[in-house]
Design goal:
The protein has helices at 9-19, 27-44, 46-65, 84-101, 106-123; strands spanning 67-69, 76-78. The chain has five helices and two strands, in the order H-H-H-E-E-H-H. It has a two-stranded antiparallel sheet. It has a domain at 45-125. The two termini are 29 Å apart. It has 125 residues and is mostly helical. Helix 1 (9-19) packs antiparallel against helix 2 (27-44).
């Protein structure tokens, strides 16, 4: 079963620029296959995604625990500055990425996949 992941706008722009150098007939196939290949990297780096989600949830919990309602007022004292979620997300993502990087080299993986898709698109002239 194919998994779909939304690619960042910068990546989509790069793929479109690469596709401009291909024959018109090969462009749609290249774009689809390259987007699928790059999207699958997100699934291969699932520790990063999982750790980021867990970090976000722990940060939200920390925000809730460290928010103190001042009695007899409508004022709340937020000791984390409501940034616990963001800090947890960033910390979790970094932890997961470091764990995943022990298994893969992300840039070389993306470059290899793009090279394969470019070769395939050029071969289908």
């Amino acid at each position: 079963m194919a998994q779909t992941v939304e690619l960042p706008a910068e990546v989509v722009q790069l793929l479109l620029q690469l596709a401009e150098h291909l024959p018109t007939k090969a462009r749609p196939t290249f774009l689809q296959r390259a987007a699928d290949a790059l999207g699958s990297i997100a699934w291969e780096y699932r520790h990063t995604m999982t750790s980021a989600a867990i970090g976000f949830l722990l940060g939200a919990l920390l925000d809730a625990v460290l928010t103190i309602h001042v009695p007899f007022t409508t004022y709340q004292l937020v000791l984390t500055g409501s940034r616990g979620k963001l800090l947890g997300l960033a910390g979790g993502a970094l932890f997961g990425l470091l764990r995943d990087m022990n298994h893969h080299d992300l840039l070389s993986l993306a470059a290899r996949r793009l090279a394969v898709e470019l070769q395939s698109a050029l071969a289908s002239k």
